[in-house]
């Protein structure tokens, strides 16, 4: 049963990534890879929230796997992030590449901690 949950989360994460990957550039432009940046931040927030919530709320292994491995695993785009950074470097856009790489990692960490904090505020620790 766990594998079905993982697969379902993966399908939804993939569809969400694809849809947002098409929609975000229409709003924010294509000079900077905003779609990957924002998807990675959102995925970090969701993952931080889910992991902290699972410490205080009884989640089945299937539910936890659905969100963390399934959805977040398919939704976030680290391999795309590294490719886009390499392309920016190859194009001589060192400043944008550095801003993208450092900004993604730093803001991703902030989002993970924000998700953890939010879950900690919403859910009481288990006794």
Main attributes of the structure:
127 residues, mainly alpha, 84% helix
Describe the structure in your own words.
The protein has 127 residues and is an all-alpha fold. The protein has 5 helices and no strands. α1 (2-28) runs antiparallel to α2 (34-56) and α2 (34-56) runs parallel beside α5. The mean pLDDT is 93.
List the helices and strands and how they pair.
Elements (H helix, E strand, L loop, with lengths): L1 H27 L5 H23 L4 H15 L2 H13 L3 H29 L5
Q: What helical percentage do the residues reach?
A: over 70%
Compressed to H and E, one letter per element, the order equals HHHHH
Q: Segments where pLDDT lies below 50 for 5+ residues?
A: none
Average pLDDT across residues?
Answer: 93
Main β-sheet description: none
Beta strand %: under 5%
Oligomer: single chain
Terminal residue distance: 28 Å
Q: Number of helix segments?
A: 5
Q: Helices and strands: which structural class?
A: mainly alpha
Q: Which outline best applies?
A: globular
Strand tally: 0
């Amino acid at each position: 049963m766990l594998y079905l949950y993982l697969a379902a989360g993966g399908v939804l994460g993939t569809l969400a990534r694809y849809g947002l990957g098409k929609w975000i550039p229409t709003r924010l432009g294509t000079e900077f890879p905003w779609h990957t940046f924002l998807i990675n931040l959102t995925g970090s927030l969701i993952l931080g929230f889910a992991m902290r919530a699972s410490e205080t709320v009884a989640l089945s292994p299937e539910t936890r796997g659905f969100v963390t491995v399934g959805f977040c695993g398919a939704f976030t785009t680290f391999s795309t992030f590294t490719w886009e950074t390499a392309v920016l470097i190859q194009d001589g856009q060192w400043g944008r590449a550095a801003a993208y790489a450092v900004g993604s990692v730093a803001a991703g960490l902030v989002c993970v901690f924000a998700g953890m904090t939010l879950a900690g505020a919403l859910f009481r620790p288990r006794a």
